[in-house]
Model the fold of this input.
Amino acid sequence: MQANTQKWIEADQAYAWHPFTDQAAWCHENFQPLILERGEGIWLFDSEGKKYLDANSSIWTNIHGHNHPQINQAIRDQLERVAHTSYLGFGNPRASELAEKLCAFFPDNTLRKVFFSDNGSTAVECAMKMALQYRMQTGDPQRTKFIAFANAYHGDTMGAASLGGVTRFFDRFRKFGIEVIFMKNVEELLAYSDDEKNIAAVIMEPGVQGVNQMHVWKYGEITQVRNWCDEQEVQLIFDEVMTGFGRTGRMFACQEEDVYPDFLCLAKGLTGGYMPLAATLTTARIYDAFLGEKNAFYYGHSYTANQLGCAAALASLEIFQRENVLDNVASRSEELHQWLTEIAEKSEGKISVRQKGLIAGIEIHDGRTGKEICTLLQAQGLLTRPILNTIVFMPPLCITSDELQHAFTMFESVFFVR
Ligand SMILES: *Cc1c(COP(=O)(O)O)cnc(C)c1O
Done:
């Protein structure tokens, strides 16, 4: 092992604390964490120079590959001007351009205003606070509860975590959170009636529930949820933190059914996976209820609308056009679909698969844990993380047909050879 690698691991184990990690296992003498040092397209290189396919897009963030010349250049150009200025009291060119571009994806009478923040959790916090404050200012202050779905994931800050339906992560903090009613599925929601009129909003990850082992909603379900919300006068929050920016085949998952929420939360892929930046989009109707000093939305973060982040996001949106990214997603998704069908058949019940666009969950029922399988995949040169026994395959959208085949070969060598 190179001296630098040794040094970085020692400092990490001595001083750092990782997310969602048992630090005892992380710091165990038999464990060698990878130190990722460099990236190029869909590839990552560790500090020893070994190359890995980034099969979960660096925790679902990366869109066009690492070290993309155009995003790099956009950040450099912005850096020559200014890196960050306060959005509290001032505007900035990149944020103006980005807000306009984001709204342009949606029909005129839908999402029309963009509130920037830093990450997926804050995008959700912001939607929650807006939904609650809107009710206080429009004569329904008793509407203080939220509805979320079982096994949903909406982030880790207190508010966002209280909407989380993944019991193993969130149950210990329930008692501190806000009131949330969990629905097992859409059917259960449709049968529910908010007779006390105390629900502020429903939150849903349209298209795919990521952390729920890539559960794919049935076509039509987001329309049913929207209709239920309209009947009950309840607002709808779509959390597209993971599904946004092309992963499901559409730019946004909600576009598949032409269904638009009252709040749309975006983060992970917004900057192409380069910088922490998030956006909560909402309608003119919501926005108008916040006009006037006593109604203003007192919420914000120091790095709101960071100029480098906005520059990266603008470059990422341009690449979608220039490189016909959604066409590549369509062709690659078809190849992925064929392969998933094949391995599920070949496995005789030991593998079940779920897919939407370039998002796949491959669930293994052969006695091995997801973690064991991912360790074997890493040795092959493929990086991903399991969710329980489901292996996530969510590559950057720029993946080529050859690279996809290469990934399939690595997966098969681990799935089928014992
Ligand atoms: C990742 C994720 C979040 C949280 O985003 P962070 O940037 O990690 O705070 C929220 N919702 C969904 C659906 C996510 O996948």
User: Anything to note?
Assistant: The pocket of pyridoxal-5'-phosphate is lined by residues 119-121, 124, 153-155, 205, 210, 239, 241-242, 267-268 (CB under 6 Å).
